[in-house]
Design brief:
127 residues; 7-stranded mixed sheet; 51% strand; 4-stranded antiparallel sheet; mainly beta; 0% helix
Length: 127
C-alpha cells in the first residue's frame, strides 16, 4: 500500500481559493490512480475528483466541475486539488485516496474502489 498525507486545508472566505496537496510514499506512485473525497459533518463521504495514473485523464463530481482541478506530479509523488470559487457547501474534511490502476486511464469515483487513504485536511468556508 501507499501512505498518504494531506495538507493545505484552512479557512477561506466564500469565493476564495485553496490548494490541497497530498504526498505519497511507499510503492511506485505511477502505479496508482488518485482521488479526492470529502466528508461534511453528518454527511457521508463523497467523491470530488480523480486522476489517472498517467495524469492524462480526470473526472469530477458535478458539484465541483469547472471550479476544482486535480493534478499530479509523479516525479514528486504529489497530487493536488486546486479549489476556486469556494462555496460554504464545500466545507468538509478532504481526503486523498489511492488505488492500483487497473488500466492506464482508470479514474475511479467509488469509495470502495480505493484502498489507501490519508488522514484528511479540514477546509472551512465562511460566508
Amino acid at each position: 500500500q501507499v501512505q498518504l498525507v494531506e495538507s493545505g486545508g484552512g479557512l477561506v472566505q466564500a469565493g476564495g481559493s485553496l490548494r490541497l496537496s497530498c504526498a505519497a510514499s511507499g510503492r511506485t506512485f505511477n502505479d496508482y490512480a488518485m482521488g479526492w473525497f470529502r466528508q461534511a459533518p453528518g454527511k457521508e463521504r463523497e467523491f470530488v475528483a480523480a486522476i489517472s495514473a498517467n495524469g492524462l485523464r480526470t473526472y469530477y463530481a458535478g458539484s465541483v466541475k469547472g471550479r476544482f482541478a486535480i493534478s499530479r506530479d509523479n516525479a514528486k509523488r504529489m497530487v493536488y486539488l486546486q479549489m476556486n470559487s469556494l462555496k460554504p457547501e464545500d466545507a468538509a474534511v478532504y481526503y486523498c485516496a489511492a488505488t492500483d490502476a487497473t488500466w492506464i486511464n482508470y479514474v475511479p469515483s467509488g469509495i470502495t474502489e480505493y484502498n489507501s487513504w490519508g488522514q484528511g485536511t479540514q477546509v472551512t468556508v465562511s460566508s
